[in-house]
Write a structure and sequence with these properties.
The chain is mainly alpha-helical and 376 residues long. It is 62% helix and 5% strand. The strands form 2 sheets. Strands 1-2 form a two-stranded antiparallel ribbon. The protein has a two-stranded antiparallel sheet with strand order 3-4.
Length: 376
Amino acid sequence: MQPPDTSDDLVISTPERVAFQYEIAGIGSRFLAQVVDTLVITVILIAISILAASLGGIFSSGELAILVEIILGFVLLAGYFLISEAAWNGQTLGKRATRLRVVGDHGEPLSIGQAAIRNLVRIVDFLPVFYAVGMLTLFINGRGKRLGDFAAGTLVVRDRQRISLYDLSGTAASPTPAPAMPSSIWAAPSATPAPAPVAPAKPQTLDPGLRRLVVAYAARREELPLARRQALAQSAEPALRQALPDIVATAGPLAALDNLAEREGVSPHRPMHRQSSSAMAWGIATLVFFWMPLIAIPTGILSIVFGGDAVREIREQPNRYQGEDRAKTGRLLGIIGLAMSSIILLLFIVGIVFRSGSRLVSPSFQHRNTVSPSRW
């Protein structure tokens, strides 16, 4: 068992004044996960080297061995984290061993796009050696995020308990089978399925298993088809009947589950500001093509402009848009790529000037060498 980190929890508040928490992974546990992943990559690289040497010996070609090792090594280094996190729902072998998981900022499952962005920006986090920029970012922001997390809108959380949407179906609704006593003050006095605004009485705490189910359901409710939602509510009907007996009796288990989701779950997200996504796209393009100044300089300028506009509008209307972190990260990536591209362009110009100057000096030097013997 790993020692617990001293890390803060991420508390997300909804417009209904409901808050839920994610335990953010600390630097210690993330470092352990990175060590495990590094060991795995090292073992695979050794296997690739043995395979390449074997192929080179079979075909008597050292060039083939080098080519195979370079190609497979590049595929491994570029795709290990991306493929693992995309295929295993935000986990690599190291994260799985240390019980960590990458999720979205609002607890939603990691998407392929988020995994790609997160691991593309890993190049910047790794600079100058072994994630120095990433660790500095973790210390500065205090939110457990490196630049890749800001860019993709993700965070790394502890995965102490793996809860699926159907975990509640096989559990008992309550240790007391007698349904005589009311189990929730949320039950409306009138038989109306829609949640009516009642007097602000202090609600009772739901059963932890039911609450985890409700939070998970609310986070994915918009993505689930109606048949899946109905099947889920039907499987959890005993617990829902215990929590909201009146609504289950009159409107069915799905209405009760939706009722709890609105009260205990995650509210719909604010839309992402369009220019923050544009800033991120242009910033990544600047970083990818930094070695081509004709492309990197315009894209870097666009990322800075779009990022600045997005940050300003989001701060003016915080309840309407989200994406300030993404806009800032895109702008930062644009600045980094623009600086690197500007250095390359400057070196190129200096090289041209130096070469032109040497060509101008060389003919005059040759002319002096040809004239000098005639004087003697």
